[in-house]
């Protein structure tokens, strides 16, 4: 059991009693060490499987841990998220503690927020609703009641989508409405569990008799509410093992804070504190870049950074590539991915990671064009997003009745026409303030304007009808997500995962850090996000950025400030110059004119493709089904359904 561990990991695995805190960088085997710790304790007969509760950050991580424990001969241990552990307990104790059965979980929460807002006399659009919902969620995980929302939000630097007093009002109405309808939400699961454990000594004692040993992974991102729950589970005991990396705190916007991790020893003076620095995941080249990135970090988390030492054989230098525009960047990545696959790297060992989900469309398209299967993690496919679908309806209507549409008066070229139609949908050329759903929605629609600019650049005579046809083709050409495919994911959803080859795209000012990161703390969180991205790579790491958004556009972007002085090959990074030339930066698209020159004659029109095999479709009948006659229907109906919905708009 202990053989596959290094001396420090072994120390973690054998420290089975009392408070234990593992502070360690990415890829040092934290998750592996705690899994072995549980298995070792169980196999040695020291821990009863049913008395251990292991808490992880996502259901996927919990599932993986259960599988791992089973392989190590320690089945029966509860490995869950905070939510699923609390929900189970709540269901069990509700009849006794409260009476009746637990109210059901609300399934359309945003609708409930909309109803609550309406009862206060506010009409919120979809983006605002999602942002207000996020504010309510944040309030609940930070245990802020409606009356305290405004001052608490100001203190936390929240960028509220509406006036704070209005949000507080909607929040209060939402709580009332929820009670009246007899439903609870996700956050209530934790809040109610906390309330029951606090109020009912008998219940608390029963839970404490059941669980005696607690293990928490990714502890740097624990919220105050989760921390409170953990304390109630423990009571006055301290058999708790936490592992985390303050440099990977990336969920501050949801109320998470690394303070619990960093203050662990202060709260538990007798804690065993173990630091792991050997990195088993990444090559020395990747680790060097990760260390250099952290060396420039500031703030509390950075004061606790640990220099990683790679245990792996040397691999290729990370590659930095500068492209003239975003489609070129995506095509460049797709080309490299194709080469990797052709050289034997399985697609499932490759990931493209980006800062915002609105960046996914360009990459979905580029991978589909290159006939590379992919899967999206934690995001809706671009053409399935509600705002994009509604924009599709509006654009189709305008294309059909364009001549009579007063909206289009004075709009002479295609991008202006698209802007005009989208402004009818509430879109503005300037991005809204704030960073939530309103902003994401704006970005999605801005991506459509961008596409219009792309199309106009290669076909100056393109009409709105051509644009709609182009959108249709793109929606149709995107492959269905497959589990064996290349992973497209936001940096936030990539936490804890690893791939042989990682493409970090859009590493430019305005994207990383994102424009709305303004305070020093927000900038530092952006840097940590890049650190999380870099440390996902085992072997090959590609960083790229584009100087302008669309082909032929004005170069308006610069590489991210986080790369200053540490591009692979530059002296600060301590590496050899990469093949790409001075400073280790390659130029993308050799042979293409420099950004700002006339746009390259690239045709972006791609035939609709079969959603199973990716071959172009020709026959009209086939188009409807979006698959060749000889391809089996191996996808769930839902995928077809959504596709049809888009095509029918
Ligand atoms: P993150 O901070 O990203 O969550 P982590 O510290 O949890 O990373 P793990 O995911 O546990 O790291 O381990 C990283 C990789 O290194 C995994 O592939 C794991 O199997 C491997 N690894 C960890 N420890 C060892 C070891 N002692 N010997 C060999 N491989 C190891
Ligand atoms: Mg981990």
From TrEMBL:
Pfam families: HRDC, UvrD-helicase, UvrD_C. GO terms for cellular component: cytosol; DNA helicase complex. Residues 3-283 form the UvrD-like helicase ATP-binding domain. Residues 565-576 have a biased composition (Low complexity). PROSITE patterns: HRDC, UVRD_HELICASE_ATP_BIND, UVRD_HELICASE_CTER. Keywords: ATP-binding, DNA damage, DNA repair, DNA-binding, Helicase, Hydrolase, Isomerase, Nucleotide-binding. Residues 284-539 form the UvrD-like helicase C-terminal domain. Its cofactor is Mg(2+). It is an enzyme of class 5 (isomerase). Its EC number is 5.6.2.4. This is ATP-dependent DNA helicase UvrD2. The lineage of its organism: Bacteria, Bacillati, Actinomycetota, Actinomycetes, Kitasatosporales.
């Amino acid at each position: 059991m202990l053989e596959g561990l290094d001396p420090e990991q072994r120390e973690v695995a054998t420290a089975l009693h009392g408070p234990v805190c593992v502070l360690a960088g990415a890829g040092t085997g934290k998750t592996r060490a705690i899994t072995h710790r549980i298995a070792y304790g169980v196999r040695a007969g020291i821990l009863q499987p049913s008395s251990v509760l292991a808490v992880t950050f996502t259901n996927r991580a919990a599932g993986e841990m259960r599988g791992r424990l089973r392989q190590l001969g320690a089945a029966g241990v509860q490995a869950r998220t905070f939510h699923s552990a609390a929900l189970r307990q709540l269901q069990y104790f509700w009849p006794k503690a409260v009476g009746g059965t637990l109210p059901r979980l609300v399934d359309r929460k945003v609708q409930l927020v909309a109803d609550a807002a309406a009862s206060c006399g506010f009409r919120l659009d979809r983006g605002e609703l999602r942002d207000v919902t996020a504010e309510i969620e944040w309030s609940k995980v930070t245990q802020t009641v409606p009356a305290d929302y405004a001052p608490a939000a100001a203190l936390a630097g929240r960028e509220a989508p509406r006036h704070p007093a209005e949000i507080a009002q909607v929040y209060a109405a939402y709580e009332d409405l929820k009670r009246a309808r007899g439903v609870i939400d996700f956050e209530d699961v934790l809040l109610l569990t906390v309330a029951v454990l606090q109020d009912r000594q008998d219940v608390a004692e029963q839970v404490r008799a059941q669980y005696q040993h607690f293990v928490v992974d990714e502890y740097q991102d624990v919220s105050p509410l989760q921390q409170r729950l953990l304390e109630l589970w423990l009571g006055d005991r301290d058999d708790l093992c936490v592992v985390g990396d303050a440099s990977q705190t990336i969920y501050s916007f949801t109320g998470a804070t690394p303070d619990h991790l960093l203050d662990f020893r202060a709260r538990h003076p007798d804690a065993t504190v173990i630091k792991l620095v050997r990195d088993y995941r990444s090559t020395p080249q990747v680790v060097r870049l990760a260390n250099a990135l952290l060396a420039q970090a500031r703030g509390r988390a950075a004061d606790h950074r640990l220099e990683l030492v790679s245990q792996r054989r040397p691999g290729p230098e990370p590659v930095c590539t500068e492209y003239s525009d975003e489609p070129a960047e995506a095509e460049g990545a797709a080309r490299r991915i194709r080469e990797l696959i052709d050289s034997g790297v399985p697609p499932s060992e490759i990931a493209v990671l980006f800062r915002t989900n609105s960046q996914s469309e360009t990459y979905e398209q580029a991978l589909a064009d290159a006939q590379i299967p992919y899967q999206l993690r934690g995001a809706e496919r671009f053409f399935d997003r509600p705002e994009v679908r509604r924009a599709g309806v509006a654009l189709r209507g305008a294309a059909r009745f364009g001549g009579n549409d007063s909206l289009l008066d004075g709009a002479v070229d295609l991008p202006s026409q698209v802007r005009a139609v989208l402004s009818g949908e509430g879109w503005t050329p300037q991005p809204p303030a704030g960073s939530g759903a309103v902003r994401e929605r704006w970005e999605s629609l801005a991506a459509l304007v961008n596409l219009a600019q792309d199309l106009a650049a290669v076909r100056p005579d393109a009409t709105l009808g051509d644009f709609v046809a182009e959108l249709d083709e793109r929606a149709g050409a995107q492959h269905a997500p497959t589990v064996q495919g290349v992973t497209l994911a936001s940096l936030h959803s990539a936490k804890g995962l690893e791939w042989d080859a990682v493409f970090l795209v859009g590493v430019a000012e305005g994207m990383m850090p994102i424009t709305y990161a303004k305070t020093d703390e927000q900038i530092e969180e952006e840097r940590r996000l890049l650190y999380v991205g870099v440390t996902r790579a085992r072997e090959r790491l590609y960083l790229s950025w584009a100087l302008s958004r669309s082909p032929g556009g004005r170069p308006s972007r610069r590489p991210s400030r986080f790369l200053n002085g540490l591009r692979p090959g530059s002296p600060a990074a301590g590496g050899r110059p990469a093949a790409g030339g001075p400073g280790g930066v390659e130029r993308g698209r050799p042979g293409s004119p420099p950004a700002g020159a006339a746009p390259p004659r690239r045709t972006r029109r791609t035939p609709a493709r079969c959603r199973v095999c990716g071959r172009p479709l020709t026959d009209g009948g086939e188009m409807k089904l979006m698959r060749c006659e000889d391809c089996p229907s191996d996808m769930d109906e839902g995928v077809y359904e959504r596709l049809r919905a888009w095509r029918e708009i």
